[in-house]
Every structure is written in C-alpha cells, then in structure tokens.
C-alpha cells in the first residue's frame, strides 16, 4: 500500500508514518519548504474534540521534491506542496492508495482570538480543499481520509451520539462542518471520502495528556470542572489502527474514532491517577480553566457521549477498549 500523509510530523502523523513503514507500506510525506517541522497538536494534542489534526506540514528548507532527509527511514519520500499558493503536482498523488490529511493548526495551542480562529479555519479548509481538488483530477482517485473531530456534535450532555446524530451549533461544530465540506471536490469526482471524527487521543507523551500527565504524576491533577462531562477517547495505538481500518474498509462519510466505552472526565482522570499510583483529589474549577486557556475551557467541560457505531459494525478490534486498559498503557509507556 502507498499512502500520502499531510500533517505527518505531529502527534498522530508521526505515529502513523512509523506504523506504516514498520508494516512495509510506502509513505509520501507532504511537506512545505520552511525552517522547521510543524508541531501543532490539535484536539488530539490538547484535549479538544474539535479536530484531530497534527501539524501544518512544514519541513526543513533543504527538502527537495521526491527526496527524504536523513531522519526519514527507507520507504518514505518527501513531496513538496504549498496550500497557500495552491502548489501540489497531481503526479505526486498518482498511484497512491490513500491520502490521509492530518494538517491543521492546533486547537489548543493558543487562545481563540479572532486572528487565531481564522488560522484554525484557514489551515484546515485550505489544505483540505487543495488535496480534494487534486484528487479529483486523478484518473484513479485514492481514498481520502480527512481528520475531523467529535466536536462536530457540540455539547450534548448524556445523549448517546453516533455518526447519524445531528451536528452541534457551537464554534467547534461549525469549524468541523467547514473542514468536512472542503472534501467535496474529491467526493464529487467519485473518490471515497472518510471524515475521521476523533475523540480525545491519549498517548504517553503529547496528545490530550501532554499537559495533564505531568500534573497527575506529581499528584496535583484532578477532574476538570464538575468532572461529570462525558469524554469520548481513543488511544494513539487505536487511532492509528482506525486510520488503517477505514482505508481498507468500505466506509465513507463520518466515522467516530473513539473507544467503545465513553467515560466521564472524573472517571478517566481517576483511572490515569490509579495507574500512576497517585491521588487525583484536586478539582480544577471552571473559572480557573477559563483563566488558563480562555474559550477552550468551554470545550474541555463540554459533554460528548460519542460511540463508534461504524467501527463496531465493520469489525474494528480495539487494543484498548476500556479506560483502565488505556490508563495502564499510558503509565507503562510514558
């Protein structure tokens, strides 16, 4: 299998590339001329459910089209593109089986000023639109797996949410809608398009636990807000496996990339603390979250009880299906 990956140097993208290479697949990294690799973490990176994007695809200035820097293993080659100028040679995607788009500015990287909101939107729709238009020009279009997020559903309390559930009405829901709509040129041309609506992606470093884990290890972490809000989560191992799964499975449209057991923020925090042999008695009040992270606080205390109906129906097998399993894996590998 030959897979092109945009956003390949971030939290999810790096793990995906390593996994594909280990399995003997070819990888084409879509990268930009720049001064360093992008590392925005997206909701999978900070706890937000707005998107699972990983980075903006920037790479070192000495990258040339079709070659790989010394840090890349055999089987990986670089393809230059520039979404801002619309630069992407269709030949660069010719012969690929799938294009996985994880590119986008991190939802939790900065406060949501008007300028940063525009960056969040533009970094997603511009890259996705260019990929979709380019795929549409190919004689044999590959599947497009486009990162998305459970933020599509908004704050829904205890309601059980599947891929058939209505969209939400808050900021992140509208952001996700615009992002998913940008894939339309590929779908209109007959390509199979998957919107991978990822929940909170858990890993031993980076991801949703990048800020929480150090506090839990010190015994000073705890639930956010009331702690009663539902958090639908997935481990990094299963996130990568889910991407491989939807490339191979005959699915299209929204796919919830979450574990089969959503849990509350309080329960997930307790499971992590127990795996780390630390207490988690301190609660972070909502007003403190607001001071610390601004409008992102509303997303951290939002309740989304999302279940993976499509993954379950198509036979996906989770490595970490329960929060206790995920917590033990995070503690053991961190």
Order of helices and strands: EHEHEEEHEEHHEEHEEHEEHHHEHH
- Judged by helices, strands and strand pairing, the structural class is alpha/beta
Specify the helix fraction band: 25-40%
Using DSSP, what is the number of strands? 14
Termini Cα gap: 31 Å
* Global mean pLDDT: 86
What does the largest sheet look like?
8 strands, parallel
Question: Approximately how much beta-strand content do the residues carry?
Answer: 15-25%
Radius of gyration: 19 Å
| Unreliable sequence segments | 35-47, 54-70
Entry summary:
The chain is an alpha/beta fold. Helix content is 34%, strand content 17%.
Task: Characterise the protein shown here.
The protein is built from 12 helices and 14 strands. The radius of gyration is 19 Å and the shape is globular.
Key features?
334 residues; alpha/beta; eight-stranded parallel sheet; two-stranded parallel sheet; 12 helices; globular
Topology:
Elements: E1 2-6, H1 11-22, E2 26-33, H2 42-46, E3 58-59, E4 76-80, E5 98-101, H3 114-136, E6 143-149, E7 160-161, H4 171-181, H5 184-188, E8 193-198, E9 200-202, H6 212-217, E10 230-231, E11 233-235, H7 236-248, E12 253-257, E13 263-264, H8 265-275, H9 286-293, H10 296-300, E14 305-306, H11 309-313, H12 323-333
Parallel strand pairs: 1-2, 1-5, 2-3, 2-4, 5-6, 6-8, 7-14, 8-12, 9-11
Antiparallel strand pairs: 10-13
């Amino acid at each position: 299998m030959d897979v092109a990956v945009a956003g390949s140097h971030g939290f999810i993208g790096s793990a995906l590339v390593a996994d594909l290479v280990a399995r003997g697949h070819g990888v084409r990294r879509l990268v930009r001329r720049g001064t360093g690799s992008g590392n925005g973490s997206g909701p999978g990176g900070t706890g937000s459910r707005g998107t699972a994007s990983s980075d903006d695809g920037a790479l070192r200035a000495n990258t040339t089209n079709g070659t790989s820097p010394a840090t890349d293993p055999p089987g990986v080659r670089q393809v230059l593109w520039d979404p801002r100028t619309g630069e992407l040679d269709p030949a660069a995607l010719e012969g690929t089986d799938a294009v996985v788009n994880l590119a986008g500015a991190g939802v939790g990287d900065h406060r949501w000023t008007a300028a940063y909101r525009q960056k969040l939107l533009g970094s997603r729709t511009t890259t996705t639109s260019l990929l979709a238009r380019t795929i549409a020009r190919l004689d044999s279009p590959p599947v497009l797996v486009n990162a998305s997020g459970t933020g599509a559903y908004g704050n829904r309390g205890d309601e059980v949410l599947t891929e058939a559930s209505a969209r939400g009405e808050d900021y992140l829901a509208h952001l996700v809608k615009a992002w998913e709509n940008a894939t339309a040129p590929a779908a209109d041309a007959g390509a199979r398009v998957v919107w991978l609506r990822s929940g909170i992606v858990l890993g031993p470093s980076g991801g949703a636990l990048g800020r929480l884990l150090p506090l839990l290890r010190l015994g000073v972490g705890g639930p956010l807000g009331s702690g009663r809000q539902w958090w639908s989560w997935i481990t990094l191992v299963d996130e990568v496996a889910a991407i491989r799964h939807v490339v191979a499975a005959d699915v299209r449209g929204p796919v919830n990339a979450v574990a089969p057991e959503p849990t509350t923020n309080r329960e997930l925090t307790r499971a992590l603390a127990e795996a780390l042999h630390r207490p988690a008695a301190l609660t972070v009040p909502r007003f403190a979250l607001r001071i610390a992270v601004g409008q992102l606080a509303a997303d951290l205390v939002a309740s989304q009880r999302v279940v993976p109906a499509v993954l379950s129906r198509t036979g996906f097998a989770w490595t970490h299906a329960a929060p206790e399993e995920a917590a033990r894996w995070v503690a053991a590998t961190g």
